[in-house]
Design brief:
Blueprint lengths: L17 H10 L3 E5 L7 H12 L4 E6 L9 H7 L2 H8 L3 E4 L9
Parallel strand pairs: 1-2, 2-3
Helix pairs in contact: 1-2, 3-4
């Protein structure tokens, strides 16, 4: 938002109801999905992802790459995810998320 882009962030939204989440996805030009361990197994994450897919929204995947913060394990997440979300991982590239101080000692 500081750069002039309007962003809807589900954890900071004023309406965290199911309808509020779906409306946020509907109003988005694209969805940035931050991949975290267990995220693809969470019902509300699945709801948001599936709604974005149904609306054919572009989805940009980001993953944690810093082992100090529990880097994302694609194989484990894939194995535990439902088949449609396994397909999301199979058919899309993911960009590594880099924190400030990446590579510095903990």
């Amino acid at each position: 938002e500081r750069m002039g882009f309007k962003a809807w962030y589900d954890n900071r939204a004023s309406d965290l109801t199911k309808d509020g989440m779906l409306k946020g996805i509907e109003q988005a030009a694209a969805v940035v999905l931050s991949l975290s361990m267990g995220g693809l197994e969470r019902p509300y994450c699945q709801l948001e992802i599936r709604h974005a897919l149904a609306l054919k929204k572009p989805i940009v995947l980001l993953h944690e790459s810093d082992v100090r913060y529990g880097s994302f394990d694609f194989r484990a997440a894939h194995d535990k995810a439902p088949p449609d979300l396994q397909e999301l991982l199979d058919n899309n590239e993911s960009l590594p998320f880099r924190r400030r101080g990446y590579g510095e000692p903990a």
